[in-house]
From TrEMBL, chains A, B:
Its EC number is 2.7.1.58. This is 2-dehydro-3-deoxygalactonokinase. One of its GO terms (molecular function) is 2-dehydro-3-deoxygalactonokinase activity. It comes from Trabulsiella guamensis ATCC 49490. It holds the Pfam family DGOK.
């Protein structure tokens, strides 16, 4: 049992845990128990409860965590590692402690730096996927897109993250669909490829965002996009706007769930970008396994 | 009493009415009784109730209306006038009817066309302010910014609207402050000029919007903007992003409430734009009075 351990991605809204044996997943958990749902910062008690089926069998399993659990609002405030950041820097910056029930635990730091637009930028959790991507597909340089609530575009060199920029694509999409005039009084939505493609094409025209999105209203008024396809059109606008920032001359990876990466692959066909999809969970587990092996090396 | 009439701006969320005598305001009403608050499309009953103090004294006052009251969701679906559109076109396109209590009524159409970014665009209500602006400040050409939930930038030539573009500045600001991660867990906000200016300057750097706004998170994390100044910073980002689309070589008018135009004037100082503020209500009343005089001319 000595090679069993638990890998955890603990974010603001979700909690995911994997039980591993020799780095193979033998069980997993996914609960809507993100940091916001933890009462009065009782992180240890919450974790013990979530992991109880596994801990009952093996009480002191080592636990390696990443994500917002290491932020100001999380269990431990783990200072960001600075760019450029590789596996060694993340290991060096990790927070080591013992849980009340006796498990050795590590929280891996996030990364901060300056985006390619000169803005301060931060990530927590995606750095693990980036390490995993490099381990799975070794190369001198990587350009990786990690779509999501806050999409990240990262460049890596010799396995180190050298810069990254955040795009609030997923959060803006959700706000515009659910809370804005653009999403008001819509019928049941039906996914529609042509409307998605139309959105991607429209966004490629270098139109300012706050004007661009109003077309989801006017195209509907004019009958160019059906009311039940507005979410597809908006998704195309948002993803197209994000991809317009990527140099089409450089092949890139897109890391995430198959449902999400499929949209980016479809948009890339329209914009002429060469994208290759990689499963986000596989990258996360591979990246955390890499850190786990560093921990074992350095602490044995 | 024959020169008494009622001017109404009836929008989605607000209702405003002015009682005029010889085009001077002698009374006014402002109620949160926009179209969304009218039950079962009982617009006539709602209007009669809202105007009852004035109608009691003079039952058949003529009523001239503009705004979303002329939309699909409004009292009458009045087709848009097309660009280029001047006072004559708006008069020609207006919907004339008699209210159940015997007032002659007109609803002035909105305007549709193609924005300077090639997108379909629409306005309802702002066209009245534009006519009023030209009447108050005659010139061959006007560039006018009408800030708001959906800001409009319009160009006029010889008193006709020749093109316009919508920017969803106000709605995005509200969504980001109230519903997004950027506005979460903020203390009581305090207006702060330096944070506003910093936002305007940051937005002038041609940074993609979905990345730009994330700086409201990272600048707070880094301590560059205090938590109680985040709304000021976001306001600067949003207005700066909108103004970055305006050619600094062309003087422009900004039409709106003093509170709102003051922000645009402050931002224009930062970006080097020459802006002159004009009161939005004055423009609205002047524009609607112009249409009222056309109505009187053509129907007498």
């Amino acid at each position: 049992m000595k090679n069993n351990w638990i890998a955890i991605d603990w974010g603001t809204t979700n909690f995911r845990a994997f039980l591993l044996e020799n780095n193979q997943v033998i069980d997993s958990l996914s609960e809507p128990c993100g940091l916001l749902s933890v009462q009065e910062a009782q992180f240890a008690a919450a974790l013990q409860c979530l992991l109880s089926p596994w801990l009952a069998a093996t009480p002191h399993l080592p636990i390696v965590m990443a994500g917002m659990v290491g932020s100001q609002q999380g269990w431990k405030n783990v200072p960001y590692a600075s760019l450029p950041a590789g596996a060694g820097d993340l290991f060096d910056g990790s927070c080591t402690f013992q849980t009340p029930w006796g498990s050795p635990a590590w929280i891996i730091p996030g990364v901060n730096g300056t985006s390619r637009y000169g803005q301060p930028d931060v990530m927590r959790g995606e750095e693990i996927q980036l390490l995993g991507l490099v381990a799975m597909h070794p190369a001198e340089n990587h350009l990786a897109l990690l779509p999501g609530t806050h999409s990240k575009h990262a460049r890596m060199h010799h396995g180190e993250i050298i810069d990254f920029s955040t795009f609030m694509t997923g959060e803006l999409f959700s706000l515009l669909c659910k809370q804005s005039l653009l999403g008001r009084d819509l019928p049941q939505q039906v996914p529609h490829d042509a409307s998605f493609v139309f959105g991607v094409e429209t966004a490629s025209q270098n139109t300012p965002f706050s004007h661009l999105i109003f077309s989801a209203r006017t195209r509907r008024l004019m009958g160019d996009v059906a009311a039940e396809h507005i979410h597809s059109y908006l998704s195309g606008l948002l993803i197209g706007y994000e991809l317009a920032e990527v140099d089409v001359a450089v092949p890139a990876w897109v890391v995430g769930s198959p449902a999400l990466t499929a949209r980016y692959l479809r948009a890339a066909e329209v914009t002429g970008l060469t994208l290759t999809a990689v499963d986000g969970d596989s990258c996360f587990l591979r990246g955390l396994a890499l850190l786990r092996s560093l921990i074992q090396e350095k602490t044995s």
